[in-house]
User: Fold this.
Amino acid sequence: MPEAATANRLLSLDVIRGVAVMGILVANLPAFGLPEAAYFSPLAWGGTAPADLFAWFVTFVFIEGKMRGLFSFLFGASILLVTDAAERHGNSAAATHYRRMTTLFLIGCAHLYLIWLGDILAHYALVGAIAFLFAGLSVRWLIATALLLLTYATISSALGAVILFDSAAQDSPHAVAIWNSFAIAFGVPPRADMLAQIDAMRGSWADGVAWRWHHAADPLTVLPVLAPETLSAMLLGMAGYRTGFLTGAWSRARYRRWAALCLGVALPAYALLGIVTMRHGFAMPWVYLNAMVLAEPLRTLGFVGYAALLMLALRPGGSLTTRIAAIGRTAFSNYLGTSLLMVAVFNGCALFGALSRAHLYLTAPPVWGLMLFWSKPWCDRFHHGPLEWLWRSTARGEWQPMRRISG
Assistant:
């Protein structure tokens, strides 16, 4: 492959990854600043004023699930990038990959229990370990397997919706127990439980660790629930890399068709689901049905459409493209750095649970500005972001070169 093509390929992946990291910040803001149940339901906490409901609706339609899916999409492509490079250098692709996943899992667990309960890294490490087993499949089989996994995930979520709607129609102790278990994430838990989380998050660092240790879902427990959708996105990312979709090999007309088709279906359908959810007053069965069942296949269309749109927006050499690509090259550092910053803001300054949902999103632009400010100068001077360097060094068992040698 010509050197210019390689450079463009890496630029496209970095730009999409950079946008995903910036979008994930927006998706995670309710989890940074509000009790757990408020992520899906404004009734739980954060206010139901028109501005709050508008903020919920916009993020539900344009952000929720799609940024995480976009990041999973890129993660699958990155698996092939790393393993292909290992083989070119005469190293074992399997050994290289599983060392990386082991290191990522340990970092993710530290992030989950010591910093923030919304960690996704440990989950990615576990699913990434599984995804490697599919890396040798042809593009056709990668896509077919991904769609089969997506179908399974949708059906599994639908069974949960059936159970939830059934429990809503009954008054037995068993039905009440089911209802309360769903309410932790999709409804309105007891106010005392949410106040306990707020007190822990506003307390000392040790208070937060203790709360997460007892309440955060551990990565192995959630793996059977979340893995099918995540693995589906990773396998599609592998297919996107192999077909040239993610490397800029397609024509602009083809990217336009895919962006128009995927987003033309996904976004209006998401808007309809959001309207239905609001019209039902955020009743928990409808929150779950629309966010976890009917939106499942739409998320895939959404992140594929966003990826195609970003390929069209790519401007090699442009100032904004270059800065967003730098965010993508330091995505690991920006992701964990954002957690540290937002936990310091919301927990350290006792703002957890204090802001409305609408006001939460005012914190996003300054953090984006910080990402844009530091990432490019760092990449101009160093080969890797600080945490990327640590990840590579620990996974490979030796310190990696860091500073660029100026000529």
